[in-house]
Design brief:
The protein is mainly β and 260 residues long. The protein contains two helices and 19 strands. The longest helix has 6 residues. The protein starts with 5 loop residues before the first helix and ends with a strand.
Amino acid sequence: MSASDPAIRLLNNGGLQSFYTGGTGTVTTVDALPSDGRASYHVFPQFADGQMVDGTYYRSTTLISNANLGQRAICQIQLQGMSRTFIDMSGQVVNDSFVIEAGRWTILSTSGAGRGYSFGSGYLTVKCDVAVNAQILYGFYTPNGFKLSEATVFSAPGGTWAQLLGDQREGAHLGIAIANDSDSPVQYEVEITDPVGAVLANRSFQLGPRASRAQFIEELIGFYSPMIQIVVKSSIQCYVMGLRFTGSTFTTIPAATLQR
């Protein structure tokens, strides 16, 4: 794959910086229904948004629902590694601290809608004072706005051991995104094993505070293997997700936390 491939561009990380949308307010919301996956803190190890030099672009849309029927949710949304301004469904800028009323939900988009910015990637957190559901919808578009591919991303579970299964047959390539959502540098170990448990590779690297890394497995270990298990180990909670690409089509692979 070349550096211009859309999969590589989605996985390329930008520089590290923090961004808050500033102020206090209430976003436009509508009624919500309960579902699984509620948490008061969500970490999404990969957030990608913006336009490439060839005119194609990625757009990441954040969906948040407050299924608590008796309590409103006061939330914050924060990006690390890139800067974006979020807007709600009515086109209003979302403030640093925003409210989702009891039993309501909202959809937050970047103001550039993908095409208004040069491409950037990082990781995103959603923090609320009550447990809420949150997802990100990735979309990949042609220069004239035709959607080529999309996938829904759930927040990553935190754990010191995280497992991904990689099926790279039929021309697929698995990428992995890891976020260090802490104020200190963290050392990570990545172990790759085959279907019978033989270790194919071990790699270690360090991530700085509030930083993330996204890379294809074959680039990380230096070779291609069609069926693999990936285990990421760290001394503190790490947040991991997978992205499986077949050409410009992609899907997300959730990580599982392992018991030691």
